[in-house]
Design a protein that fits this description.
Layout (H helix, E strand, L loop, with lengths): L4 E6 L7 H7 L3 E7 L7 H18 L3 E3 L4 H8 L10 H21 L3 E4 L9 H13 L5 E2 L9 H12 L10 H12 L4
Parallel strand pairs: 1-2, 1-4, 2-3, 4-5
Helix pairs in contact: 4-5
Length: 191
């Protein structure tokens, strides 16, 4: 049997990941990469990381955890603090995470990478795929797998698996600004 091609998969949280990683591992040797300096507060970061670690263990997949550079991320994103979800702040955030994923893949000698970000309705799929493709192009001979993991019931499949595994679903993307928007929605205030 031929060895499977190696694949680095950026994961933002456990609930978005089951369907993509189970689909990809049928064809690739998948390694998970958790690099999310956008997640705030630190307790939420630790919760999401813990769930991803549990998912990696359950799926018997290797996991690499990138450095948590929250202050650096906040300094870069502050200029777009009033941007709506899927705007320039999200573009800055996704670009940074996918560029880091491409750099990690290159460092590991992995030529193909992707992300579970398009599982979430909070993400602009075209933006994710454009930024992933740009990140791949800027790091040599690399391929980003453009995907829309919501298609063909993908998001529902991930939700079902996540519920079965007891993962907590978040009501905000991860950054302090999306948390403020979610808090305002819960309180019944316009955002």
């Amino acid at each position: 049997m031929d060895a499977k091609e190696k694949y680095l998969l950026h994961v933002c949280c456990a609930p978005c990941s089951p369907h993509p990683l189970r689909t990809l591992r049928q064809q690739y040797e998948v390694t998970l990469y958790f690099y999310n300096p956008n997640i705030h507060p630190v307790e939420e970061y630790q919760n999401r990381l813990g769930e991803v670690q549990r998912l990696a263990a359950l799926e018997a997949l290797p996991l690499i955890v990138g450095e948590y550079r929250a202050e650096e991320w906040l300094a870069g994103a502050a200029q777009w603090k009033d941007e709506p979800e899927k705007g320039l702040r999200c573009e800055f955030c996704i670009d940074g995470r996918l560029d880091a994923t491409a750099r990690m893949a290159a460092a590991l000698g992995i030529c193909r990478f992707g992300a579970v970000l398009s599982t979430s309705s909070r993400k602009d799929v075209k933006m994710v795929n454009r930024l992933g493709t740009q990140a791949a192009a800027s790091h040599g001979d690399m391929l980003f797998d453009a995907a829309d993991w919501k298609k063909r019931e993908g998001a529902k499949i991930s939700v079902r698996i996540s519920n079965q595994l007891g993962f907590r679903r978040q009501d905000y993307c991860g950054c302090i600004y999306s948390k403020r928007s979610a808090d305002a929605r819960r309180a019944g205030h316009a955002v």
